[in-house]
Amino acid sequence: MVFDKTFVAIVLILCCLEASSVLAGSCRESSLCCNGRDSSCVVQKAPINAIIEDLSDKPCYCDHACLRLGDCCEDFKQYCGGIYV
Protein backbone atom coordinates (compact mmCIF):
# COMPACT_ATOMS: atom_id res chain seq x y z
CA MET A 1 0.00 0.00 0.00
CA VAL A 2 2.88 2.39 0.73
CA PHE A 3 4.28 1.71 -2.74
CA ASP A 4 0.96 2.69 -4.33
CA LYS A 5 0.80 6.00 -2.45
CA THR A 6 4.41 6.80 -3.27
CA PHE A 7 3.88 5.97 -6.93
CA VAL A 8 0.77 8.13 -7.12
CA ALA A 9 2.59 11.03 -5.44
CA ILE A 10 5.49 10.79 -7.89
CA VAL A 11 3.14 10.69 -10.88
CA LEU A 12 1.25 13.75 -9.62
CA ILE A 13 4.46 15.71 -9.09
CA LEU A 14 5.70 14.82 -12.57
CA CYS A 15 2.39 15.85 -14.12
CA CYS A 16 2.49 19.21 -12.33
CA LEU A 17 6.06 19.84 -13.44
CA GLU A 18 5.20 18.97 -17.03
CA ALA A 19 2.16 21.26 -17.00
CA SER A 20 4.18 24.17 -15.64
CA SER A 21 6.87 23.73 -18.28
CA VAL A 22 4.26 23.74 -21.04
CA LEU A 23 2.80 27.00 -19.73
CA ALA A 24 6.17 28.65 -19.25
CA GLY A 25 6.73 31.36 -21.81
CA SER A 26 3.07 31.87 -22.62
CA CYS A 27 1.55 35.27 -23.41
CA ARG A 28 -1.87 33.76 -22.82
CA GLU A 29 -1.02 32.38 -19.37
CA SER A 30 0.66 35.67 -18.43
CA SER A 31 -2.22 37.70 -19.92
CA LEU A 32 0.26 39.91 -21.78
CA CYS A 33 -0.04 41.67 -25.13
CA CYS A 34 1.72 45.00 -25.46
CA ASN A 35 1.92 47.53 -28.25
CA GLY A 36 5.29 48.78 -29.52
CA ARG A 37 8.45 47.90 -27.63
CA ASP A 38 7.84 47.32 -23.94
CA SER A 39 10.55 45.74 -21.80
CA SER A 40 8.05 45.10 -19.02
CA CYS A 41 6.00 42.88 -21.33
CA VAL A 42 8.26 39.92 -20.62
CA VAL A 43 7.64 36.34 -19.54
CA GLN A 44 10.39 34.88 -17.41
CA LYS A 45 10.72 31.15 -18.05
CA ALA A 46 13.37 30.65 -15.36
CA PRO A 47 13.58 32.28 -11.94
CA ILE A 48 14.98 35.81 -12.16
CA ASN A 49 18.37 35.02 -10.59
CA ALA A 50 18.79 31.61 -12.21
CA ILE A 51 21.73 30.80 -14.41
CA ILE A 52 20.32 30.10 -17.86
CA GLU A 53 21.88 26.90 -19.12
CA ASP A 54 19.33 26.14 -21.80
CA LEU A 55 18.51 28.77 -24.42
CA SER A 56 14.85 27.81 -24.23
CA ASP A 57 14.87 29.23 -20.67
CA LYS A 58 15.61 32.76 -21.91
CA PRO A 59 12.83 35.27 -21.30
CA CYS A 60 10.39 35.82 -24.14
CA TYR A 61 8.32 38.88 -24.97
CA CYS A 62 4.70 39.62 -25.75
CA ASP A 63 5.21 43.05 -27.30
CA HIS A 64 4.96 44.01 -30.95
CA ALA A 65 8.72 44.55 -31.22
CA CYS A 66 9.38 40.86 -30.56
CA LEU A 67 8.43 40.17 -34.17
CA ARG A 68 11.39 42.24 -35.39
CA LEU A 69 13.74 41.13 -32.62
CA GLY A 70 12.85 37.44 -32.82
CA ASP A 71 12.25 36.98 -29.09
CA CYS A 72 8.48 36.40 -29.02
CA CYS A 73 6.89 33.82 -26.78
CA GLU A 74 5.71 30.80 -28.72
CA ASP A 75 2.05 31.78 -28.55
CA PHE A 76 2.47 35.51 -29.27
CA LYS A 77 1.06 35.42 -32.81
CA GLN A 78 -1.81 33.13 -31.82
CA TYR A 79 -2.75 35.00 -28.64
CA CYS A 80 -1.90 38.58 -29.59
CA GLY A 81 -2.12 38.22 -33.37
CA GLY A 82 -5.55 39.68 -33.80
CA ILE A 83 -4.61 42.70 -31.72
CA TYR A 84 -1.07 43.68 -32.68
CA VAL A 85 0.06 41.86 -35.82
TrEMBL record:
InterPro entries: SBSPO, Somatomedin_B-like_dom_sf, Somatomedin_B_dom. It comes from the Eukaryota. Gene3D superfamilies: 4.10.410.20. Coiled coil: none annotated. Pfam families: Somatomedin_B. PANTHER family: RPE-SPONDIN, SMB DOMAIN-CONTAINING PROTEIN. This is Uncharacterized protein. It comes from Phlebotomus papatasi (Sandfly).
